[in-house]
Amino acid sequence: MTESSPLETPVPAGRIERRPGGYTLMFERRFDFPAGYIWEVLTNGDKVAQWLGTVTPGWQLGKEYRLDMGNAEVTGTVLQMSPGLSLQFTWEDPLGDESVLDWQVLETPDGALLQFRTHEESADFLTEGAAGWQGILDAFDDVAAGREPARASMDQWRALRDAYAEEFGVSPTMGQVDEAGIVFERWYDAPAGEVGRALDRATSELGLGAEASVDVTDDDGGRTRVVVRQPLSSGNRDAASARLAAWHQALDAAGDHVAGNPWHPSSRRLAALKEFYGASAGSS
Predict the structure, then answer these.
(1) Which pLDDT does position 284 carry in this prediction?
(2) Is the pTM of this model over 0.70?
(3) Domains in the chain, CATH or no CATH each
C-alpha cells in the first residue's frame, strides 16, 4: 500500500453511540456504483484481501473464518448472510475480545449505500477501533474505485483516534512510546481524588509507579484525566511492550476499582497485551 499524505485536520466520519449494555460504532459510505458491485467488494476474497486482509476460507454462513491482516490475526463465525444485502459475523481480536460486525448494502437512486456497525460491550479500544475502521473503509473506497489503497501513518491514526475521543467523550485506551518513554492517557467518570486512590491501589498491587510521572486532573465535565509517563532505559522492544502491558493492566484495574467491580490480575491477559504492543510497535 502507498503512504497517504499528512492528515492536517482529522475528522471522524463515523459515530459512536452509547446503548444499553455497551456501545455502537457506525459508518455509512455512499457509492456511485451498483449495489451488486459493492457487495462483490465486500465479499469477494480477492477484493477483501486488498482492503482488509486475507480471509480463509471466505465469508460462509455458519462457518468459522480466519483473517490475516498482516500484523494481526482475527477469527470469528459468520452469523448471517443474505447475498447482495447483508453480512454479519463475530470478530475475535488478538486480545480475546469479541464483538459483532454488521454490514448492509442498500440500493440508492444514484448507486449504493454501505452501512457498517460494530457492537461493543465496553469502551476498551473503542476510539482506536473507530480510527482503524475509518482507515479500513477508506481503503474499501479506494478498492471500489480501482485505486491503490493508501495507508495512514501512526501519527495520522493517533490524531484521528484523539478526534473520536474528544468528539464522543470516550476515553482512549492504548498507550504508546515516544522519545521520552511510554505514555498513556485515560479518562474516568469519577472525581480526581477517587481515581487517584484507585490508581495508587492498582499500582501497588502490580508493583508499578516508582519511576513514573502520573498526573491526575479534573476536567470541566466532571471527568478525570490520567496521564502516565515513564522513561525507558532501554530501546529494547520487549522491554517497552512489557512496560506498556503492565501499565495498561494497572489502568484497567483502576477503572474496576473506581466502579466497585472485582479485579484480579490475569497473566493470560498480560501476556496478550505484551504480544499486542509488540506487534503494534512492529507495524508503526
Answers:
(1) 53
(2) yes
(3) 9-168 (3.30.530.20), 176-283 (3.30.530.20)
